[in-house]
Amino acid sequence: GHVQLVPPQNVTLLSKDFAMILTWAPGQGYPPDVTYTVRYESQDRLDKWLKVPHCKNIPRSFCNLTCALSSLYVKVRARVKAVWGRSQSLWVKSQFKDYYSDVELAPPVLTLSIRENSIHVSASFPLPACVENLTWKYDLNLWEAGSEDKVILCSVSQQKKYEGYFRKDTVTINTTALRGNYCFSARALYESITLKHSEFSQPVCVLLNHKG
């Protein structure tokens, strides 16, 4: 005789910023203290729904599955149900996706270290721990800023590309011949079934060899 909750809405498995995340919306008329439980199955073991310990009886309406997946190369789907006291909803399933081919990348964060005749550029990635070992790379762009007051409106003149560096590589650029305001921007790169890349990061601009 328990009330059955309506199922969660808009259940979607999506890839964003290197992570595989299940998202959903509360059903109509949910009480404020409703919780959710998530499980997933992989295409090579259908009908075996695996528990996700960190997404059991959670109050939020998303679950980061990335490091719970048994394989990054097999398509998976997830399901979620709502629980309130002794009442619960039916499970609602997402579509199938796999990390390897569906991963969406975020731009790296650049760190610049300026020396006397060189600049060292390194990129850091907001990666989940379980995907650290995949072959992430980045492309780096360098150009002289235009004469506008806002250096974000950089005119891409004399642009140089440094392509395909591994994630942990530092790019060293000789700055002896560079005079003025230079901007750096990078994008993450990943080769799965196709070559994927993120948007370019916001430019970081520095004044080089300035006398004055």
From TrEMBL:
Taxonomy, superkingdom: Eukaryota
Location of the Fibronectin type-III domain: 7-102
GO MF, any single term: cytokine receptor activity
Pfam families: Interfer-bind (PF09294), Tissue_fac (PF01108)
PROSITE patterns reported for this sequence: FN3 (PS50853)
Record's signal peptide: none
InterPro entries (alphabetical): FN3_dom, FN3_sf, Ig-like_fold, Interferon/interleukin_rcp_dom, Type-II_Cytokine-TF_Rcpt
A Gene Ontology term for the protein's cellular component: plasma membrane
PANTHER family according to UniProt: INTERFERON LAMBDA RECEPTOR 1, INTERFERON/INTERLEUKIN RECEPTOR
Name of the featured protein: INLR1 protein
